[in-house]
Specification:
Strand content: 15-25%
Helix content: 40-55%
Largest sheet: 2 strands, antiparallel
Distance between the termini: 31 Å
Order of helices and strands: EEHHHHEEH
Number of helices: 5
Shape: extended
Radius of gyration: 21 Å
Number of strands: 4
């Protein structure tokens, strides 16, 4: 059993895989180890992308200075500067805070691919299912 997560920070994509081997013997231990690995990778990637975050914060602050009446521009400058500071410190979002930009979006971004995983079986043209689901569908 394994867990896999794809992380994208500042346009750089990285895949984090954790497998159930060695001292990881239960699903709970697997999930804990995977969460720790993902958080560590996020902190490392954010530190590597620190110049990008600082440049974005500087640009947002310049934009906020040209439009001082726009509260959203001021808020995004503050959020950008806080993101740069957290990347510099090596921390993630603290409890009780949230990113306004992502809160405005109803759903996370989704990336569709044309490839079908190997473990799926084609039950009819363009429709796929797992082996168990295909067997249960064949009963009816």
């Amino acid at each position: 059993m394994k867990r896999e997560t794809t992380i994208t920070v500042a346009g750089i994509e990285r895949v984090i895989r954790t497998e159930m081997v060695g001292h990881i013997r239960t699903v709970k231990a697997l999930e804990t180890a995977h969460t720790k690995a993902v958080k560590a990778a996020l902190v490392e990637m954010r530190r590597d992308a620190l110049p990008v975050f600082q440049a974005a914060a500087d640009k947002a602050e310049e934009h906020a200075k040209t439009r001082p009446v726009d509260p959203l521009a001021m808020m995004s400058a503050k959020d950008a500067r806080n993101t740069a500071r957290r990347a510099e410190r090596g921390t993630l979002h603290s409890h009780g805070t949230y990113n306004v930009r992502t809160a405005r979006k109803p759903h996370p971004s989704v990336r569709y691919t044309e490839t079908v995983p190997e473990y799926l079986v084609e039950i009819e043209p363009g429709h796929y299912a797992t082996d168990e689901a295909a067997e249960s569908l064949a009963l009816f």
